Amino acid sequence: MDEIDVQILKLLKTNARMRVKTISSIVMLSEPSVKNRISKMKESGVIDGFHVDVNYEKLGYMIDFFMKITEIKISFSDFEKRIQQFSDFQEYYSVTGTEKFIIKGHTKDIVSLNEVIMKMERIAEFNTSIVLKTMKMDDL
């Protein structure tokens, strides 16, 4: 990968649907060259897919939260099966440190979050943090 590939990646991160013609004019390469570079990045796994960035607030999910799991009360395989049944959970991380797992979620309101907490108390010990502000960083 060279600097032009990084530039193309940054452009696609801001708008995954950006036209090749627009990208080629910005990076000052021909359209076939840009298409070829994008194809190579897909084939090599650098580009893993093109995703939709969902605005959960517009769908009525007003609270983002992280649930930091310190202990599980059931077997690991049962725990993974159970958390997959929570529609409010979006991402699950196995981590090092004082927590064993971190779950990222979105819920409609405090009442809904409290319901999630009450269900989780049966299967794990945890601490929940409500997100006050989110800021995405450019990771390239």
TrEMBL record:
Which keywords does this chain's UniProt record carry? DNA-binding, Transcription, Transcription regulation
HTH asnC-type domain: residues covered: 1-62
- State the coiled-coil residue ranges: none
Task: Tell me one GO molecular function of this protein.
Answer: sequence-specific DNA binding
One GO biological process term is: response to amino acid
Q: Does the keyword Transmembrane helix apply?
A: no
The answer on whether this UniProt entry bears the keyword Magnesium reads no
| Entries under InterPro entries matching the protein | AsnC-type_HTH_dom, Dimeric_a/b-barrel, Tscrpt_reg_AsnC-like, Tscrpt_reg_AsnC/Lrp_C, WH-like_DNA-bd_sf, WH_DNA-bd_sf
CC annotations in GO: cytosol
Protein known as: AsnC family transcriptional regulator
What organism does the record attribute this protein to? Staphylococcus intermedius NCTC 11048
